[in-house]
């Protein structure tokens, strides 16, 4: 089953830089796609195009069969089904962890406070941070904040999770706990698209690795073939 399909994406910035230069791709349900490539090769632009955080200059993005680049489409409704995790956690500093997690489910999914909090506590247990429910983000370590950012996305019941260098801003000793959580999600069947420099994660967890360079997909394959080719 195709979950996301992009067709001939181009992104040209004002400075005439061709950040995406004709990218076509399909992401299937249940795939864990890891995107690798040198800095500036368009990985982040490609990832952000999938939920139209970055609007492509030309080309189409289909999500669950719907052309979300079409002006007629209500993008917000579809975007809710695409969780996104950034390098920096983007938690609301003046809200508690529980409030951070329940905000969108209450506002956008119209869940009751009780229902949203029950689900939030379940997710907090999943990552072993239930005792942080009433803490503020500043009281958490980087690795804890990133795990909260991930479960905050999960609280929206997304159909796909997009990760943009989720461990790049972390102290090295905190990288492992975030990768472990991502691995758990992958094992549970979550569809994931991940931009990362963590080659261990790519080798171990990816179902497919995409190599980008100069705004193009230059190579791709199962990690085994991908990493064995010279
Ligand atoms: P990567 O994620 O592989 O490092 P990016 O997608 O972030 O690459 O960037 C691709 C190219 O587009 C880079 O040369 C980058 O400097 C440029 N770029 C990214 N965002 C912008 C922007 N908002 N305006 C102009 N150029 C940009
Ligand atoms: P990433 O770490 O995701 O590759 P960058 O550090 O390259 O991101 O860029 C951070 C922000 O600056 C992004 O919003 C990106 O779109 C923007 N940006 C990147 N390169 C340029 C550029 N050459 N001109 C203007 N904006 C840029």
Automatic annotation (TrEMBL):
<keyword id="KW-0813">Transport</keyword>
<keyword id="KW-0472">Membrane</keyword>
<feature type="domain" description="ABC transporter">
    <location>
        <begin position="4"/>
        <end position="230"/>
    </location>
</feature>
<dbReference type="Pfam" id="PF00005">
    <property type="entry name" value="ABC_tran"/>
</dbReference>
<dbReference type="InterPro" id="IPR017871">
    <property type="entry name" value="ABC_transporter-like_CS"/>
</dbReference>
<dbReference type="GO" id="GO:0005524">
    <property type="term" value="F:ATP binding"/>
</dbReference>
<dbReference type="InterPro" id="IPR030679">
    <property type="entry name" value="ABC_ATPase_HisP-typ"/>
</dbReference>
<dbReference type="GO" id="GO:0015424">
    <property type="term" value="F:ABC-type amino acid transporter activity"/>
</dbReference>
<dbReference type="InterPro" id="IPR050086">
    <property type="entry name" value="MetN_ABC_transporter-like"/>
</dbReference>
<keyword id="KW-1003">Cell membrane</keyword>
<protein>
    <submittedName>
        <fullName>Amino acid ABC transporter ATP-binding protein (PAAT family)</fullName>
    </submittedName>
</protein>
<keyword id="KW-0547">Nucleotide-binding</keyword>
<keyword id="KW-0029">Amino-acid transport</keyword>
<keyword id="KW-0067">ATP-binding</keyword>
<dbReference type="InterPro" id="IPR027417">
    <property type="entry name" value="P-loop_NTPase"/>
</dbReference>
<dbReference type="InterPro" id="IPR003439">
    <property type="entry name" value="ABC_transporter-like_ATP-bd"/>
</dbReference>
<dbReference type="GO" id="GO:0005886">
    <property type="term" value="C:plasma membrane"/>
</dbReference>
<dbReference type="InterPro" id="IPR003593">
    <property type="entry name" value="AAA+_ATPase"/>
</dbReference>
<dbReference type="GO" id="GO:0016887">
    <property type="term" value="F:ATP hydrolysis activity"/>
</dbReference>
<comment type="similarity">
    <text>Belongs to the ABC transporter superfamily.</text>
</comment>
């Amino acid at each position: 089953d195709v979950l996301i399909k992009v067709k001939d994406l181009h992104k040209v910035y004002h400075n005439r830089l061709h950040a995406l230069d004709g990218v076509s791709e399909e992401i299937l349900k249940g795939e864990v796609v890891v995107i690798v490539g040198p800095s500036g090769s368009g990985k982040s632009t490609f990832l952000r195009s999938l939920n139209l955080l970055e609007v492509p200059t030309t080309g189409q993005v289909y999500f669950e069969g719907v052309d979300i680049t079409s002006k007629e489409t209500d993008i917000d409704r579809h975007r809710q089904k695409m969780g996104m995790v950034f390098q920096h956690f983007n938690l609301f500093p003046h809200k508690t962890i529980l409030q951070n997690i329940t905000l969108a489910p209450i506002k956008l999914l119209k869940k009751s406070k009780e229902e949203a909090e029950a689900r939030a506590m379940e997710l907090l247990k999943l990552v072993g941070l239930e005792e942080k429910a009433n803490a503020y983000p500043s009281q958490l370590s980087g690795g804890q904040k990133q795990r909260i950012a991930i479960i905050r996305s999960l609280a929206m019941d997304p159909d796909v999770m997009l990760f943009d260098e989720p461990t790049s801003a972390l102290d090295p000793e905190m990288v492992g706990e975030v990768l472990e959580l991502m691995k758990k999600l992958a094992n549970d069947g979550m569809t994931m698209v991940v931009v990362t420099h963590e080659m261990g994660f790519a080798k171990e967890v990816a179902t497919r690795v995409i190599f980008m360079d100069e705004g193009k997909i230059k190579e791709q394959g199962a990690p085994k073939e991908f990493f064995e080719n010279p």
